[in-house]
Protein: Protein-tyrosine sulfotransferase
Organism: Durusdinium trenchii
Amino acid sequence: MILTSSWLAQLAQLVAADGLPPETCSWAPLPRDDDFDLSSGFVDSVPRQFARCSLALDAAGGHASGLLETLIFGMPPERSFSPEASRCPEGLQFEELLLSPRYLVVAAQPEVARSSDWRELIPVGACVPPACHEAFANLALPRLLEWRQGKSAKYHPSPGPCAGAFDVDDASCVQHLDQDIRSEACVTAVHVWRVLCDARFFDELFGAQVRSLPKDSLGESSEFAEHQKAALGHYSTCKEGGGSYVGVYFNAVGEEDPAGAGYALGMCIPSLHTTYSSAVSTIVAWRLGLRMATAYPGVAIDADSVRSAELMHRNELEIGWAIIGLGRSGTTSLAAWLDSHPNLELLSDPEDHFREGSFDYLFRRSHLEHLIRRDELPSAARAGSAGPVRGRRTPLVGIKEPNLLRSSRGRQIMAEMKRTKVLIIFKNWVDWLKSAALFIRPTPCFPRNLARIGEEGNDCSFAFDEAHLFEKVRDLEQKGVARERIKVVHLDTLRAEGPAALRRLGAFLGAGNRSTGSSGSSAGAMPQEGEVAEDEVEFWEELCGLPTELARRLERRRSEALRGCDELLRRSGDAWHCIERGENPKCENG
């Protein structure tokens, strides 16, 4: 067990900064390397007692050990347990004490209800390794109380004067809970012991790459996929074990990385559920120094570059619905229409003309992030559930991000967001072609060049496969998006139905009961939003005047794009039928 780290030395500095004598944290002493040298010849001390106990708790399995099952509480005025109650498995011994109900309040333990008075002490006992005899009150017991809370575990200070073998001084207990445990140095020391009592668990959950490089392929068997699998696996295991998963970003000494930190690694630490304070930052930096020295001894960390933040899974975002495509097919108009529904709310950048930019363009910024930073999101985005809205509850929040349908990585992100329903809108293929081709910057593509893509001398670059909805929806389903979460609609259907379509979509999203017709009944027809191309007339004139061979090429493109779209509409209950062949109505009317 090696503790040495330049960051751990900051603990002593924190004590001095707080203006407190070192003995203030006697209930959570600052550990040193020699405290873990258990050979004879050293004078026994509280830190050495803590060291012995932490090693024993870790060896017993930490939070996953069977020690939790032996934890028992008595009923006042009882002050001890019977021999039967205190019988322990082989290799363990029973320890007991009296605990002030004030501490149980701070520790959020339900047994506080057993006491009718603050001075009525509650007996508590557990079977622990013999090495925890001296440190039972201030190390083993708070860890057991913490571990029994599972995923809801939070920082538990040592009880200090709030625990005793025969009695407890209430005034000292009050002062301890009100002042002593708030010391930044003491908080940091407790975090250190929280790690050491479950060290094997935390050690195994270090080093997953939480951000991949742009050059990495994004395929299923790619390095990117392997990194993502490792990061999400560590994150899930960490959360299941009651921990908090943190991203640590830093450069190696001598590195210059203008785009950001050169390393982005994941780390599991004891659960936060508190303010992300300098105490936590100190623990993260300390753990980084230790684990990197073990796993990557050749990498020297640039201490000034170290940054850290708690991470979260995209599935934790409170997003009930998402418009993910098809770009240039009415997504902006649909977003504005849904936002007019009384039980729906669109998140977007107020300055964004296309009603995009939710969470400060999170879904574009975090394209290469396997997990996202919790501190970059408003609290409303990560609290509660994205479940159905009833009555006048908070509106169901949604986003518009057409890029999520376009790319394989975007579709994988949607698969990760398992509570979010997916809306995809499209329109007549030739209308989409016009809108998408004229939107290309700096030089739009016109029909003649669109038909001749791939020929020498043709500078037009256009992705026809962006409109291949059936393949993209099938890929969504293969990646894990349940079919019942996906709804594909046709722009003309929505415009023809009017407000009834808005009620239908609201019902699908869980924002109202379409049988009553109440939700969204005051909404008007679908608005017309988004940019209108300046060269539409020229586009249609060139399209209608195409030679037969070039027109046939575009017709084949249309047939490829619309393959399977009738099935998509049928699944969604849309009455529109895709037009597979035929002349362009614009030309017929022309």
Remarks:
- The CA atoms of residues 347 and 358 lie 5 Å apart.
- The radius of gyration is 31 Å.
- Confidence is low (pLDDT under 50) at residues 1-5, 384-392, 514-521.
- The first helix runs from residue 10 to 17.
